[in-house]
Amino acid sequence: MVVLPLASWAIHRALQPLAALFRALAGSVNTLRDGEYNSGIHWRGNDELAELVRAHADLGEVLRDQRQSLVQRELLLDTMVQNTPVAMLLVAAGGDRERRVVFANLAARKLLHGGWKLEGQRFDELVARAPVEMREAMARSGDSLFVIGGEDIEQKPAPAEAGGGAQVEEQVYHLARRQFRLNGKPHELLLLRLLTSELRRQEVQTWKKVIRVISHELNNSLAPVASLAHSGAELVRRGRYERLDDVFATIEDRARHLEGFIRGYARFAKLPQPQLQTVDWGGFLAGLQRQIDFRLEAPVEDLSGRIDAAQIEQALLNLLKNAHESGSSHDEVALRLTRLPDWLRIEVLDRGGGMNDAVLQNALVPFYSTKRNGTGLGLALTREIVEAHGGRLSLHNREGGGLCVAMQLPLSNE
Q: Where is the signal peptide (predicted)?
């Protein structure tokens, strides 16, 4: 009777360090699970338990190093995302009224909310406060290019020149959007990139290219003209007049070619001010259909506007010609008119190959063309005509393939 209690007490006392070790291991596991890696366990001896404690300590060291590396990478990524000039907006998808912003970088905050935090806000309410051009781009699916007028941009006006007032230039934006699932829920990432300065740099490079093209074309015409003029003078000196007709015909042909070449560039450089007149859109489009094939998506009834008919006709011919050359079947080339509260929207639609991001960003740059023999003046001239009417030109890829080029003309001209 005396031995049994003493043996029980001795066993309990001997097992106390083991019980303490197991409690320490359980607590350490809980701290690792909670993301704390600073706890340490010590065990005297060189047995299997000591090996278990060392393995546990090595595991904590590995997890601590991985956590530090992950934190550093997250910090680097966050620094890059926050300081990129591209406005990034991550929206949790769902019902239209339930879509909320879950992440926005500094550029997005400055662009859409004056620098204030955007996380947690309703996406539709945020878009409702944006400029009309941005709202329309957000409402469409897919990537798009749009222009915001100077009056809608919060920026300091340029200093006034002597005798003139300050003027804020328009800003060109490219919108890219991608959808994916994050933590099992659908999300949408929107990227808004300001292209104005980049377009200006590209315009400088393009003008250099234009000068080279014009110089090449002038040399190709003037060199043979000079040579033929010299040959004609020699023929006259020798009294051989029978070949002069061919000489003069070739000179005339090269001169007319050069005249047409220069006229095309001059038309773009010296676009006259629109001469506005009241036009019935039904009759105007009927006359346009006699020049080029297209399908009118909706009937135009009792709709008129004040435009320069010749200039708008040229702009629409450029767009419709591009639509036919896009690879779209002729019956898929369509024109649609929509009356908005303050605008008349004219859309030229096709089912061709559309535009990739690079072409979409450069499409409005003068003399930029992906066609081998293209001048790159079609869209640029169309944009000049539309903006001379106080309107806007935008383009985006259509869902299901193809391109939509939209002209928006103000109804205030009516």
A: none
